[in-house]
Design brief:
alpha+beta, Pdz3 Domain, 2-enoyl-CoA Hydratase, Chain A, domain 1, seven-stranded mixed beta sheet, six-stranded antiparallel beta sheet, 9 helices, 23 strands, about 25% helix
């Protein structure tokens, strides 16, 4: 039977597959009585306000909507990733984790009351229409997004296949908004794509759904066979603009390249809730060199993989700083009413680093040549830029990070830097090392 309590590590709409069953910690003595009394006073206040709205508001409100709005208000006051899923949204989320659903093909989050695009999904209507990471959606079919919850906004963007939706988008510093018409379609997520690049195997992971690890296994096997074990120099693992997804898939992908050691730990509110996940013996690539590409759109599950391979010195990380989402969300079913998406833990890399609001710093910083018309619009502020984000407890990274990836691989400086690294060549002038003291040669 499919487990219904799920761990989420996606930037916006991903889901995870590990069960958490936690009991509330009990207080003792007079402190419990005092806390209980105060809580009941506050709940009584809420009941009084609800009753006044229900009986005295100028128009008769829908009571179910009032309750849902109150629940969402409570959850969004915690952090940007906690929310209530009604029954339909919960069903849609479960379908999405299986890799096929109807819609536009964008990963989104809520910021300052508006919907911000984390990333368009490859080969979907949104990507083909030119929607970009960091675009801010202000209107859907002429209706303002301000005042809607994230779930309500997503619901309005969904609709029958072949129907059209018009998005008004604010992009970067442009004064005039952009209107984009997109025809809805069935979104079939192909989470892993691969191709031969002469003596290098290129693997792009677009998200972590239920099919990711199986597809990765197939990619490694086919690339190794086609190139030849003796001729194969290594693999490029491209995690750029990958918003995350299933925690168990991130662990399995990391394990595919590791022989031993911790992959990630999740630490909740109580010490006894700490979970550690370790690699099993066996490396799918037989120890071939790995270059991992990340950028400002690489979030959560992507950061788990990059952090694990970086800490174990199993791969060299190239690109720009990642998004910095280091929290885990648990999906808690609420019967026929839907489900609660609640932030329950932070995750840590094998070296004990919290990625929350910091991100993964690449071993070698590689900047793309951004077209003039996109400059300033290629940058993502990341988790630290989200209002109400969960604190790291240490220094946070406030600066933006580029999420631009050229459509033509010939123009992709980060990709070519990864090829150069694996071939032992010098990296070209598009590369900036992490510190001024480092040279521009490929690290050993």
């Amino acid at each position: 039977m499919r487990k219904l309590s799920l761990l989420l590590v996606g930037a916006a709409m991903g889901a995870g597959a590990a069960t958490i069953a936690s009991q509330p910690q009990l207080l003792s003595g007079t402190s419990a009585i005092a806390a209980s009394a105060e809580t009941y006073r506050q709940l009584s206040l809420f009941g009084d306000v609800f009753e006044k709205v229900r009986t005295d508001y100028v128009e008769a409100p829908e009571e179910a909507k009032l309750i849902e709005a109150a629940i969402n208000g409570m959850l969004t006051s915690l952090d940007p990733h906690s929310s209530f899923l009604d029954a339909r949204s919960f069903r849609d989320m479960q379908v999405q984790t299986r890799g096929e659903f109807g819609g536009l093909g964008i990963e989104v989050t809520m910021e300052d009351g508006l919907v911000r695009v984390v990333t368009p999904i490859d080969e979907t209507p949104a990507a083909r229409a030119g929607v970009l990471a960091n675009d801010v959606i202000t209107h859907i079919d002429g209706e303002e997004v301000q005042g809607l919850t994230l779930n309500q906004a997503v619901e309005r963007m969904r609709g029958p296949v072949n129907s059209e939706v018009v998005l008004r988008i604010r992009r970067g510093q442009q004064v005039d908004p952009i209107e984009v018409s997109i025809t809805r379609d069935v979104i079939r997520i192909r989470p892993v794509r691969w191709r031969v690049e002469d003596d290098i195997g290129y693997i792009r992971v677009t998200q972590f759904n239920e099919q990711t690890f199986t597809n990765l296994e197939r990619a490694v096997a086919e690339l190794t066979e086609e190139i030849g074990e003796d001729r194969l120099r290594g693999f490029v693992l491209d995690l750029r603009n990958n918003p995350g997804g299933l925690l168990d898939q991130a662990i399995m992908v990391s394990d595919a390249f590791l022989d031993r050691g911790e992959i990630v730990s999740t630490r909740g509110r109580n010490a006894n809730e700490t979970q550690r996940f370790s690699a099993k013996s066996g490396d799918l690539t037989n120890g071939k060199p790995i270059a991992v590409l990340v950028n400002g759109g690489s979030a959560s599950a992507s950061e788990i993989v990059a952090g694990a391979l970086q800490d174990h010195e199993r791969a060299t990380i190239l690109g720009t700083r990642s998004f910095g989402k280091g929290s885990v969300q648990t999906i808690i079913p609420l019967g026929a009413q839907g489900a609660l998406r609640l932030t329950t833990a932070r995750y840590y890399t094998p070296a004990g680093r919290s990625i929350q609001a910091r991100g993964i710093e690449p071993d070698t910083l590689v900047l793309q040549v951004v077209p003039e018309e996109l400059r300033g619009r290629d940058e993502v502020r990341g988790e630290a830029g989200l209002r109400g984000h969960l604190s790291n407890g240490q220094e946070e990274e406030q600066g933006a990070s580029s999420a631009y990836v050229p459509q033509d691989p010939a123009d992709d400086a980060q990709l070519h830097a990864a090829f150069a690294f694996l071939r032992g060549e010098r990296i070209d002038s598009a590369v900036l090392p992490r510190s001024a003291e480092e040279s521009e040669t490929v690290p050993n």
